[in-house]
Amino acid sequence: MQKATLYAVVAVFCLAGSAFGQDWAQWRGPQRDGHVTGFKVPTQWSAQLSKKWSVSVGEGHASPIIAGNRAYVLVRRGEKEYTLCLNLTDGKTLWEDVVNAPFDSVIFPARRLGKSPRSTPLFHAGKLYTIGVGGVMTCYNASSGKILWRKDFATQYKIPFPVCGASLSPLVDGKKIYVHVGHENEGAFLALDKDTGKEIWAWRGEGPGYTSPLLATIAGTRQLVTASHNMWIGLNPVNGQLLWSLPVRQNMFNHNSITPVIVGDTVLCGQNQRPTFALKVKKSGAKWEPVKLWETRDITMSTSSPIHDGNVVYAVNEKRRGQIAAMALDSGKVLWECSGNKGENVSLYDIGSHLLAFTINGDLFVYKKSGSNLTEVTKYAVADSATWASPAISGNRILVKGAETLTLWEVPTR
């Protein structure tokens, strides 16, 4: 069932682009890599952030997104999922869509994650795309909330999602939108027509893990890089052909949640309780080969995706109860690390001269970069609950999803 409420005056301006900063329209921002553009670093960080509004929206681990003067978020209330469109100025709901979302697949110890949606929505060219925790994918008219198409992958797969729920955040590429569906025993990486939902091609190999795909040009060839249940893979985005794969042994919970770092022909991969490693993806004739450059257990990653700045990779080590660290991309050597205790989930953002770290405990740590070292500048409380979702940042505005709330903060520039 779909409900839509339009605010006609607001609709004229909402999708025209933001005067405050670039849209944060998908998982991890414009380039899906945690790098923020348009953020004005204060000459002196204020004692407090400016709270613009806070509203109760429902449970959800899906990150919110920002497009123009609108925010979008996917949440759960009871046994239903809600897609919400809010006015970014005041937090008021402009339209909402509601679907039944039965889900009982969460296993111990992931049961504490509950039934909340994990997949971050995507805004592109006036359309909004969402994937619910049970694998239902919907395309909306982002202005009105009208459903343009919907696919329930339960009609194609007996189990349409991995054991902890669908978590992949979709990726648009020209006329195609990519999604990985199914269970580890049976699944497919799909390229769908973004306007109709019709299948363009499918790689029918392993089912998904919990990571989200990236597009990159490696060894002169454009390709999709992602993780399936037991492999890291590269796919040809034109036809879905498997270019290369690297088997990896998962732990019992199939916990591969890390979005990789890709720099040139190097792909850095991480998984829960497993070594972090870097691949050099090479091509010899018609054959592709991923060669390990290095592997280390000094840093192992759980749910927090890394970011890079030149040869430095900032990551969250799952050791010492959550330890922010810097490592060398070319060797894996640990260059710097904090004492720990940042929690099991930390969202990292690069704003140029500084690094932002949003912790599961609802805190924002600000670090100043100095070579590979980080110096803590200040700390802010941005949520009073567990914060699994990564914030959205547009200009100096930060949209934070707590356990039940959505809050807009602004970083004063002076």
What does this structure look like?
The protein is mainly β and 414 residues long. The protein has a domain at 192-209 and 211-256 and 258-298: Thrombin, subunit H. The chain contains 1 helix and 33 strands. It has a 5-stranded antiparallel β-sheet, with no helix packed on it. A 4-stranded antiparallel β-sheet has the order 2-33-32-31, with no helix packed on it. Strand 4 and strand 5 form a beta hairpin. The N and C termini lie far apart (47 Å). Residues 1-19 have low confidence and may be disordered.
State the gist of this model.
The protein has 1 helix and 33 strands. The protein is mainly β and 414 residues long.
Topology:
Elements: E1 2-3, H1 8-14, E2 50-56, E3 65-67, E4 70-77, E5 80-87, E6 93-100, E7 122-124, E8 127-131, E9 136-141, E10 147-152, E11 171-173, E12 176-183, E13 186-193, E14 199-203, E15 214-218, E16 221-227, E17 231-235, E18 242-247, E19 261-263, E20 266-271, E21 274-284, E22 287-296, E23 307-309, E24 312-317, E25 323-328, E26 334-337, E27 346-350, E28 354-359, E29 363-370, E30 373-381, E31 392-394, E32 397-401, E33 405-410
Antiparallel strand pairs: 1-6, 2-33, 3-4, 4-5, 5-6, 7-8, 8-9, 9-10, 11-12, 12-13, 13-14, 15-16, 16-17, 17-18, 19-20, 20-21, 21-22, 23-24, 24-25, 25-26, 27-28, 28-29, 29-30, 31-32, 32-33
